[in-house]
Amino acid sequence: MANFTVSGKTAIITGAGSGINLCFAELLLTKGCNVVFADLTLRPEAEQLVSQYRSKDKAPRAVFVQTDVTSWSALRNMFEVTVREFGSFDLVCPGAGVYEPNWSNFWHPPGSAESKDELDASHYALLDINLTHPIRTTQLALSYWLHPPASTSQALLKASPENPKRVVHVSSIAAQLPVFRAPLYGASKFAISGFVRCLASLESAGVRVNAVAPGVVRTPLWTEHPEKMIYLKEEDAWVTPQEVAEAMLSCAESEEHKGGTILEVGAGNTRHVGAFNDPGPDLSPGKGFATSNSAQANEVIWEWMGDSKIWAPPAADKS
């Protein structure tokens, strides 16, 4: 496969309005890569970044496409706008994700007071965001790369080993380290890592699919939610968004990371996660993989399970 560099390329990043994905978007722009910010909203720092790179007279360029990643039509629109604005795209990062609690929470079943999931919705919001959207986004990218629409510009050429493309997913150490308080999140990340490994053979078609698996990352996903911050102590180590962004760039550019790679990202260290007999994350202090108050958090889960207001079976519909 030909070498891949992000300079002069175009990337689509979902969830680019904040956190890890915003940091990755900023890094790509500094490397000369156009970025499509696909998110529901942009935090002020993301708005400022898009504004800085908005000019059509300069490269690289940033474009914001308001996108609800749970909507397949919105995901299609995201690709259509990208091709219309830039002619083609070379890198896709379906990075948007949420953590439980306080989102779609297994320990607050659908229909209970704190649940974000409706009783008869027939789906979990967290899985729509964390799992279904990355899978569908990857499918859509492949449809453009393997069978470019005849109506698009000549810039959109079929992917091949001579014209390589990249998909970088965001998994988690929760894919290796079961977390009692977050089973839906863990299931989504186990699935993402498995999905990425299953697509390793796409390398022969010129498309490399891999993922980063960060530890506890200091982003608003944690810092702006007191109910999550109680899991940590001040001395606990964090992984920085910059460390994760650098690992994501390495997944895209480095020849070391072949298709199907899962790259674990800790505080000051990265490593490949083996498909078989992997030792798992190093949970010793300072690595960015452990939270000191996990036992306390688990006690809260047991309290919820004993609460009939949360767990009583829903009343039968007598209408």
TrEMBL record:
Top-level taxon of the source organism = Eukaryota
UniProt GO MF annotations: oxidoreductase activity, acting on the CH-OH group of donors, NAD or NADP as acceptor
**GO cellular component terms, A-Z:** cytoplasm
**Keyword annotations for this protein?**
NADP, Oxidoreductase
Determine if Oxidoreductase is one of this entry's keywords: yes
InterPro entries the record matches: NAD(P)-bd_dom_sf (IPR036291), Sc_DH/Rdtase_CS (IPR020904), SDR_fam (IPR002347)
| Family per similarity comment | Belongs to the short-chain dehydrogenases/reductases (SDR) family.
Entry protein name: Uncharacterized protein
Q: Which organism is it from?
A: Thyridium curvatum
Q: What is the lineage of its organism?
A: Eukaryota, Fungi, Dikarya, Ascomycota, Pezizomycotina
